[in-house]
Every structure is written in structure tokens, then in C-alpha cells.
Amino acid sequence: MSNLIRIKRLILVLLTIFAVTKVGLSLAESWGQPQIQSRLELYQTNLLLHASQWQGKGTERTTPQQSVPELNAAVDALIGTEPFPTAQKQYQQARQSAQTTHSNITARLQELSSEAVASSTEAGEIQPQGNAITASQDNFQQQRWQQSLSQVEQLINELDLRLGILQAQQGETEAAIKTWSSLSDQSALEITDLRPLPASVTEESLTQTAEVLIGLWSAPPQILADAEIKINDNLDSWFRYRALSQLYQLQQRQDQLSALQTKELEVAQQAVWKLALIGGIPGFGGLLGVGILIFLLAQLLLQGKRSLLATNADLTWETPWNWEIIWQVLILGFFCIGQLVLPLLFSLLGLNPINYTVRMKAFYVLFSYLLMAGGGFLILFLSIKPFLPLPEEWFRLKLGSNWIFWGVGGYLVALPLVIVVSLINQQLWQGQGGSNPILPLALEGRDNVALFVFFLTACAAAPIFEEIIFRGFLLPSLTRYLPVWSSIVASSLLFAIAHLSLSEVLPLATLGIVLGVVYTRSRNLLAPMLLHSLWNSGTLLSLFILGSGSN
Q1: Which residues does residue 432 pair with via DSSP β-bridges, in sequence order?
Q2: What tens digit of pLDDT does each residue of 263-319 get?
């Protein structure tokens, strides 16, 4: 029996080394990747630019809304007094961030290329099976980085198109033409020895669109034959309206110009409401959260152990298992399944989501998450099966208690705390550090089926699985060895690290602490599940609204 225990522990040690290494590499990879927050800021800027047309800011056109001073003041409060310089500054910052990301990815690709050459030289012509597997993994990793490089290069080109239009809108025509003229030079940034394939059709089309814009704002203007097609294909939101407006004015197509302005006014009205929604709900909820937080802290100071925050604050769980079971569930049931078993399974099945459509990626994410949750629950059950029946408060799901109060209240309190931490975090990372890969897919997707599947994954599957693992099992188990507060912090850090994005560690750890406090006080897993679901739902709603602003 002792030999079996030693073998089991040796396997756990090896798997732990693998899991820690894999997580560490994933976090290191996220170092040079852009945050979703940077893209969200640009989407919000696009909405602000749309909203600026509500009162004809920056145009000669007037609208009936100018006769309502109170409404004007409300719109000014949303969009600011100088929307175009502000937007230009944000796009310039985004471009600088993208250029930094490009440099980081380029350096990483060069490292991978050097490592591949060295490995090939050492291995010789005949490679052992282990070396072949490693080479295959390195090749897949290199493909991922190359795809990221291509995406960043395309992003830089798209940002240059938009920056030029912003400059032209403010009368800086020469600067705009210079920006567009330099767009085609971005292809020189490619690593030719790592990307032997020719430039994609999309990159070529963006360059052609730059030539269209140069012609429209040149003196005298030059209108290319496919100008309208290129504008519609490669520009969106406010930037498309500005380019089409310039085109129609030069072509003296008054009917199309009038229809365009009417449509733009409708979009501007919608943008104002969208800005009010995405700013109003978190703003109002954040104010309520600050009020609740002040009340709870004041009550704690005045009433001490009789306060809400002190409820069950020092009450630990009766944990029948030791540290080895905790270790086993965390490594086998979460990290190894997600980082070893599923990638190996999908590799054997030949599943590669890189070239999937958004809908296929959505189902792939849901399917892989359900497999991970099923495997995790199986490991959890087999690990604690010898200790059944468990004490009463383990994995408690009680509908009749005050779990809704704790879940909603915790969500409101989490809003201002996570927002403040996120603002500080943004200053630390300067747009780098990676993000949850689901978020860009949900932001850029226009497929309602895909959005629904993302909603199921983020707002149902994730809260159930993650709360059972991190709050239902890990946090109470740690109270056998640590005080309750230390157990909350430790489980929250592991919860944050498990999302594999450096830039998200501090905000998610903050959210995890609120989730832990809610669970330890309510002693009902439904409360943190509700909070987690509300948080993810709010995030997806904001992504949907911001993404629709560029439609």
C-alpha cells in the first residue's frame, strides 16, 4: 500500500510540474498580447463619434435636437466637448500599443525559429518519438504566434485608415494623406523568413482602400473606379460614413448624400442610448455598490460580530480529507484536464479552431468547457467518495435562503472594487497582458447563435463549474489549514491565475475575494453562482452593445 501511495504522489508531482510549467508558459505568452480592454475603448470611441453627429458636431448639418438645451447638455456630458481630438488620441495610443505588441511577437517568433533550428541540428535526421511530439507542439505554437502577428499587422493597417480619417475631419489633410501613404509600408514589418506566404487579400484590400482615401482628399481629387466598394468592405461605423460622405459630395450625388445623413442621424441617436446604457448601468450599480460597501463597513465597526460582514467570518468547514486530496483535485480535476488531456484529445481528433467560423468557435468553446467540467466533476467525486456522506454545509445549494440578496449585493459591491483595480491595472500593463479568448470572439461576432452559445458558456457553465471547484471545494478545504480570510485570498489567486492572462490576475482576484466573502457568509453556493453569472452577463452585454456600434 505504501508503494502505491508513493507512486501516486510521484505521478502527482510530475503532473504538478507539468501544470505549473504549462500555466507559467501561458502567462508568459499573454505578456505581449493586447488586452480586450484596449479594443473595447476603441469600440466605445466609435460610439462616441457616432453620437457626435446627433447635433452635427464637426459638420455643417443641423438637426432638430439643437432646439432642446437640456438634451444637448446631456449629450455633451456623454461625448465631451472635443470628441475628435479625444478619439484621435485614443487611436494613436492604440496604434502605439499595437506596434509594441508587434515587436514582442516578432521577437518571440525569432526565438522559436532559433530554437527550432537548434533542436533540428541536435536531433539529426532521425528523431525519437518524444522529440517528434515536441517539434509538433513547437510548430503549433509557432503557427499561433504567426497568426497573432498577422492579426496585429492587419490591426495596425486598420488603425492607420481610421487615424487618417480623423485627421482629415479636423482639417489636417496633409497629415491624413501622409498617414494613408505610409500604410502600405506596414508590409515591410513582416518577418519574411518566418512568413513565406504572400500578403493576404485583406491586407492588399486595406492598402487599396488607403489609395481610395488619398484620392478623395487630394487636391484635385481622384476618384477610383471601385472607391465605394472598398469603403464599404474595409471601413465601418463612423469612418465609413465620413468616407462615403466625401465620395458622394465629390460625385454630386445629392440623393445618396441626403439618405446617408438621415441614416447617420438615426445611428447617432442609437449611439447616444447605447452610451447611456453601457455607462449608466455600471455607473448606477457602482454607486449603489459604494453605498452598500460603506454601510457594511460602518456596520462592522459599530456592531462588530453582529454585523453582516462578520456572519460566519471565522467559522471553518469540517474538512474530512487532507492536503493531498486538495492537491489531487486541483491538479488532476482542473489544470491537467484543461492543459493536458483536452489539448491531447483534440490533437488526436485533428480539431484546430484557428480557421473555424465564429459559430464553430463558439460551439468548440462550449464543448471543450463541458468536457473539462465533466472531467473535473468526475475527479472531484472520485476523490471525495471515500469520505461520503459529507458534513451538512459542504456543496450546499439551498433555494429557500437569502442567496439572491447575497448574490445581487455582492455583484453591486464588486462593481466599484473591480473597476478601481482595473483602472490601476491598465496603468501597470499599458494595454498588454492578454485577455480571455472568448471576449474578442463575443465582441467581434455578428452571429446571434454564436452569441447565445457564448452566453451559455460564460453565464451558465462557467459559474457552475468554477464556483463548485474554487468556492465549493477549494476554499472550504483550505480552512483546515488556514484562517477563513487567508483561504479566501488563496483560492481567489488560484481562480485568477487559472484564467491564464497576466493582465486579468488582479481584477479577477478582486472579484474572487468578493465571491469568497459572499460564499463564506451565505454558506450557499447559489449566491456566488448568481454573482458570477451576473458579472459575466454584464460583460457580455457590454461587448454586444459595443460591438453593435461598429456594425
Answers
A1: 34
A2: 888 888 887 877 777 777 778 888 999 999 999 999 889 988 888 888 888 888 999
Q: Categorize the per-residue pLDDT at 78 as very low, low, confident or very high, splitting at 50, 70 and 90.
A: low
What are the start-end ranges of the H helices in 53-82? Answer: 69-79
Buried b (16+ CB within 10 A) or exposed e, 372-407: bbebbeebbeebbeeeeeeeeebebeeeeeebeebb
Assess if residue 190 is contained within a domain.
Answer: yes
How many other CB atoms are found less than 10 A from the CB of residue 113?
15
Q: What band does 375 get if pLDDT is binned at 50, 70 and 90?
A: very high
Cell 442610448 belongs to: 273
Question: Last residue of a domain, which of 222, 250, 276?
Answer: 276
Give whole-number Cα distances, 276 to 143, 273, 445, 529, in Å: 41, 5, 22, 28
> Residue 347 and residue 154: Cα distance in Å, rounded?
28
Q: Are 369 and 342 in contact (CB under 8 A)?
A: no
Number of structural domains (the chain) is 2
Dihedral sign from CA coordinates of 229, 233, 234, 236 = positive
- What confidence score (pLDDT) does residue 66 get? 45
Are the beta carbons of 325 and 452 closer than 8 angstroms? Answer: no
Asked if the structure places residue 232 within a domain, the reply is: yes
> CB of 141 within 8 A of CB of 171?
no
> CA-based angle 231:232:238, to the nearest 5?
80
Same domain, 402 and 268: no
Report whether pLDDT(189) > 50: no
The pLDDT of residue 284 is 85
- Predicted confidence at residue 440, as pLDDT, reads 65
Model confidence band, residue 41 (pLDDT cutoffs 50, 70, 90):
confident
Does 542 reside within a domain? yes
Instruction: For 506-522, write each residue's pLDDT tens digit.
Output: 999 999 999 999 999 99
Three-state SS string over 199-257 comes to: CCHHHHHHHHHHHHHHHHHCCCCCCCCCHHHHHHHHCCHHHHHHHHHHHHHHHCCHHHH
pLDDT for res 436: 63
Go through the chain and tell me how many residues it has.
Answer: 551
Looking at 208, 243, 276, which one is the last position of a domain? 276
- Domain check: are 64 and 213 in the same one? yes
* One domain, residues 269 and 402: no
Kindly give the interhelix angle for 227-234 and 237-251, rounded to the nearest 10 degrees.
Answer: 170
- pLDDT tops 70 at residue 358: yes
Handedness of CA 354, 551, 546, 162 (dihedral sign): positive
What is the amino acid identity at position 110? Answer: Q
Taking alpha carbons only, the member of 203, 196, 201, 100 closest to residue 142 is 196
Cβ atoms 493, 470 nearer than 8 A: no
Same domain, 542 and 404: yes
Residue 224: domain span: 33-73+83-276
In a domain, 343, yes or no: no
